[in-house]
Specification:
4-stranded antiparallel beta sheet; about 60 residues; 1 helix; alpha+beta
């Protein structure tokens, strides 16, 4: 796998880069910076973490 753009709600928020048998997430948007430089097992894991992070923020704001 080559690097892959990761989108959330139709907006590019980062890229997943293969590293050490997994994927390193590189955030390009401020609202997902908490996940920057983290390692994941799959693109699905990256997207699930982004979704969880942003949903938790919505709940804290509401």
């Amino acid at each position: 796998m080559n690097k892959q753009v990761i989108e959330y709600a139709g907006e590019p928020v980062g890229i997943a880069v293969p590293e050490d048998g997994g994927l390193k997430f590189i955030a390009v948007k401020y609202h997902v910076m908490d996940l920057d430089d983290r390692r994941f097992g799959s693109v699905t894991d990256v997207k699930r973490s982004i979704h969880s992070l942003l949903k938790n923020r919505e709940l804290r704001v509401a």
